[in-house]
Automatic annotation (TrEMBL):
Keyword DNA damage: no
Stretches assigned to the EamA domain: 166-297
Gene Ontology cellular component list: membrane
Topological type in the membrane: Multi-pass membrane protein
Protein name (Swiss-Prot/TrEMBL): EamA family transporter
Amino acid sequence: MTAFALDDPYDRRSGLPRPGSLLRSAAGSVPPSGLVLLGIFSVQLGAGFAKELFAALPPSAVVFLRIMAGALIMGVVARPKLRGMSWRAWAVGLGFGVTLGVMNLTFYEALSRLPMGIAVAIEFLGPLGVAVAASRRRLDLLWVGLAGLGVALLAPWGQSQSVSWVGIGFALVAGACWAAYILLSAAAGKHFPGTTGLSFAMIVSAVLVAPVGVATGGAELLQPELVLIGLGVGLLSSVIPYSLELNALRRMPKHVFGILMSLEPAVAAMVGLVVLGEVLHLQQWAAIASIVAASLGATRSR
């Protein structure tokens, strides 16, 4: 009888479909590649809305709203069990959370100084570095060269460039944190069941970012409309894309997933153009294309 109740997609009292079954059915009807693309658009749309908030709040305060919203939601959905955790699990979880917090802080600082497509393209060097480091093929030197060309094209060598060196520095730090995030995420999967590792990391990250976010945001953080937008940014940037990607990974090979994720800098540039009106020069589009091609090549060659 219990098994029947769990498998039954309808509520036995009301006769209506269960919300969970509706969500699973909706996700199941979308091809996995479509779920990945929806997740990418969700992340970048969240970043676009976050950048809009910079007019009212500093980047660190926006990061606080985003991570706090994500931590509250993930804490309810996948509450981590602290009792009985080994010291290795604590070390991995704390490192995971600190990395997540620093990654978001530095990326949003870069986002406040750079066009969105450029910030994401530079940050994407982190996962590209992880992919290349895991391989010993000579062909990978080509992808490293392409990525280096992309960075060189983005650097403000000429007077006509409007790209900030400080912004590039923040984006590079965010990329390094993204690389560490990938490695720590794999380690967390060995010490935490299900998605509780990410939930624990988001809670640690929220605690880490809270003093900076509250200090810089001040009383503005109490405005209901800003809190609601921050909640929306948290949903778009963390909860929704993670759920879509998790569902897609169950139904597609990981290398195909990596190839699709390589499109993220290009999607970021398009969202920046449409949502924020950020028009890039031809040289900057060429730089983003070089980094996307490097990521696609490194993922496909593996």
